[in-house]
Write a structure and sequence with these properties.
Low-confidence stretches: 451-466
Order of helices and strands: HHHHHHHHHHHHHHHHHHH
Largest sheet: none
CATH architecture of the domain at 18-341: Orthogonal Bundle
Number of helices: 19
């Protein structure tokens, strides 16, 4: 069980190579929830290619700020929630970035759990004729995932290694079953030419791409969590980007294919797959993949949610904080209606908050602080990152302005792409204007002089304070 909480990971413990990063991120992207989104997009009116483009584009947009902020974990070994203290302040990060992250991560845990439960219910009904109630199945499924989440990063890494090849084989075979099925509508030529609703066009693609991007942008504040054990930036960049592109494509194609083959009438591809095979081996393999998938992917939502709670209440520790996040996630898993509300919840409620947060974090880290952080000061009350009463007013104001801009932008614009850029510009401009007027603003705009990697090595043994 992982004992380390929010303190920096020492240099000698950063041994994770790009393959492990690839397996974690790839597993995260190829899961029942992401696959279901591809099907929901087609059922919502997009063509097969429109759904694939929307999902892949959404992931690509979100991964730009994600991979930038993830660099903090590689260079300094600190978790993402702690790193947000450099921008929002020691106190501000707790009650803005961390509080919002807890709310969103528990929603995402519930969404993935219900999606997995839907797959289990569909497979067992088709295989054995058993009709399990969805809500109790979701709750039991959620409870089993808590065990892995509380154990920490190590078990997650090892389970990901086991799950990755099995998942690729089973889901690849599932796609083969869809492609080779001889029923009307399943032939590749019919699926690839499925146009959905011709009235949607680019706006429909933009709406779905934005929802996918918004869902992943919530991970920006936790990007460093997955990378703080990485050996080098190159390991993180290669593993993360390769997994993002390949994982998004596989999920989108599998989900969209099943929905397009049924002319958009069935959004859950596991329902479609279960209806075209009678093989017990295939059913067992699907069940194993769904369970392993949630054990290796969905539990990351609880893991990062636990770290966010630790950032808010350090005395709880990672283990108990993870249990708190788990309790909230299990409670939300009792409401299957969140599946149908994905576009509204993710594209609107989540996007308006985390798109500006991503813009502020990237602008501060890259433009203002020039890729450098004073790590020990992240844990000091009244220190460099205390700003004004523990909060950076410019970051808070810029985030609020960004949220308003998000709603003002038309749907045809990729709001999760444009909003972070505009919000980042607002943050930089206001920061520069206040530098000569307030001491806390001058400190906020002053990068440390020690190069990032050298600082990380020097600060590896820093004493952690609440």
């Amino acid at each position: 069980m992982e004992q380390r909480g929010i303190e920096p990971v020492p240099e000698e413990a950063r041994t994770t190579h790009w393959g492990d990063i690839f397996s974690i991120v790839f597993n995260f992207l190829v899961n029942p929830g992401m696959i279901l989104i591809g099907g929901l997009a087609v059922a919502g009116g997009l063509s097969f290619w429109g759904a694939v483009i929307a999902v892949t584009l959404g992931i690509a947009v979100a991964f730009v700020p994600y991979i930038i902020v993830a660099t903090i974990g590689v260079d300094h070994g600190v978790p993402g929630q702690v790193s947000t203290r450099m921008t929002y302040g020691v106190i501000g990060s707790r009650w803005i970035a961390s509080l919002l992250r807890v709310a969103v991560t528990t929603f995402q845990f519930a969404f993935q759990t219900i999606a997995g439960a839907l797959a289990i219910v569909a497979v067992l009904h088709a295989w054995l004729g058993i009709s399990l109630p969805l809500v109790p199945t979701s709750l039991v499924f959620a409870a089993f995932q808590v065990l892995i989440a509380t154990m920490g990063y190590g078990p997650l890494k090892h389970l990901s290694r086991i799950a990755l090849p099995l998942k690729v084989v089973v889901l690849g075979f599932s796609l083969y079953l869809l492609v080779s099925h001889d029923a009307p509508g399943f032939h590749p030529s019919e699926v690839l030419s499925f146009n959905g609703s011709s009235t949607l066009g680019w706006v429909g693609i933009a709406v779905w791409a934005n929802s996918v991007a918004a869902a992943w942008l919530t991970m920006v504040t936790d990007a460093a969590d997955f990378c703080r054990y990485s050996r080098t930036r190159a390991d993180m960049w290669i593993g993360t980007m390769a997994a993002a592109i390949l994982g998004a494509l596989l999920s989108a194609v599998l989900g969209a294919y099943g929905a397009a083959a049924t002319l958009g009438t069935v959004s859950n591809p596991f329902d479609v797959i279960s209806g075209i095979t009678t093989s017990g081996v295939v059913f067992v393999a699907l069940l194993i993949v769904v369970v392993l998938d949630n054990w290796t992917i969905n539990v990351l939502n609880l893991y990062t949610g636990g770290l966010a709670i630790v950032n808010m209440i350090p005395r709880l520790g990672r283990f108990w904080s993870t249990l708190v996040a788990s309790a909230i996630g299990i409670a939300i898993s009792a409401f299957p209606a969140i599946i149908d509300g994905f576009n509204t919840i993710s594209g609107v409620a989540i996007g308006c908050l985390f798109a500006p947060i991503a813009g502020v974090l990237v602008a501060d880290y890259v433009v203002v602080k020039r890729w450098r952080i004073d790590v020990p000061q992240l844990f000091v009350h009244g220190g460099r990152y205390w700003y004004l009463r523990g909060t950076n007013p410019v970051a808070v104001l810029s985030t609020a302005i960004g949220a308003v801009l998000y709603f003002l932008l038309p749907e045809a614009v990729l709001r999760c792409l444009v909003t972070p850029i505009l919000t980042g510009l607002v943050f930089v401009v206001i920061t520069r204007l206040l530098v000569t007027r307030f001491e806390w603003a001058r400190v906020a705009a002053e990068p440390i002089s020690v190069p990032a990697r050298a600082a990380a090595a020097e600060d590896a043994g820093a004493t952690v304070r609440p």
